[in-house]
């Protein structure tokens, strides 16, 4: 692949094209930015309704998410997975977990969690309470 083709493949919503790109760069996922902060953009492949898709994921900490809204009572503070409608870049995904920061081990565990979660459907899946991470 040429440089332009590789750049296009990095943002492709086609699972085969994106998987081939990951193979050329020797990675299992594409980290768009730096780990170690309160949020990160990461792209990876995984199953969705019987086929492989590209997950275009915004992974955030619960503290980051709560900092964007008015104060929320502790009993309403939850981890969640939010799945949007398919787009040209793949399946939009937002994962919010009660973690101090998003580091590489957290990213790897989140990817495993999404790949293994068999009951995923569009919309928001709320689980756990603050202080309880999966």
Task: Explain what you see.
With 134 residues, the protein is an alpha+beta fold. The protein has one domain (3-127). 28% of the residues lie in helices and 31% in strands. It has helices at residues 3-10, 15-25, 62-66, 104-116; strands at 30-32, 39-48, 51-61, 79-83, 91-97, 123-127. It has a six-stranded mixed β-sheet. The longest helix is centred in the last third of the chain and has 13 residues, at 104-116. The model has no long low-confidence stretch (mean pLDDT 86).
Write the layout of secondary structure elements.
Elements: H1 3-10, H2 15-25, E1 30-32, E2 39-48, E3 51-61, H3 62-66, E4 79-83, E5 91-97, H4 104-116, E6 123-127
Parallel strand pairs: 3-5
Antiparallel strand pairs: 1-2, 2-3, 4-5, 4-6
Low-confidence stretches: none
| Coarse shape | globular
Distance from N terminus to C terminus (CA atoms, Å) equals 39 Å
Report the β-strand fraction as a percent range.
Answer: 25-35%
Tally of separate helices: 4
Could you list some keywords that capture this structure?
single chain; 134 residues; alpha+beta; 6-stranded mixed beta sheet; 6 strands
Give a nutshell description of this structure.
By secondary structure, the protein is of the alpha+beta class. The chain has helices spanning 3-10, 15-25, 62-66, 104-116; strands at residues 30-32, 39-48, 51-61, 79-83, 91-97, 123-127.
């Amino acid at each position: 692949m040429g440089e332009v083709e590789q750049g296009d493949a990095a943002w492709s919503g086609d699972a085969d094209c994106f998987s081939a790109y990951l193979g050329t760069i020797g990675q299992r996922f594409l980290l768009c930015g730096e780990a170690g902060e309160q949020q990160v953009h990461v792209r990876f492949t995984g199953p969705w309704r019987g086929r492989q898709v590209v997950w275009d994921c915004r992974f955030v900490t619960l503290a980051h998410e709560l900092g964007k809204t008015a104060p929320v009572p502790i009993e309403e503070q939850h981890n969640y997975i939010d799945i949007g409608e398919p787009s040209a870049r793949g399946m939009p995904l937002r994962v919010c977990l009660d973690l101090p920061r998003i580091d590489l081990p957290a990213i790897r565990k989140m990817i495993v969690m999404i790949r293994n979660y068999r009951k995923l459907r569009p919309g928001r899946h709320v689980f756990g309470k603050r202080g309880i991470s999966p």
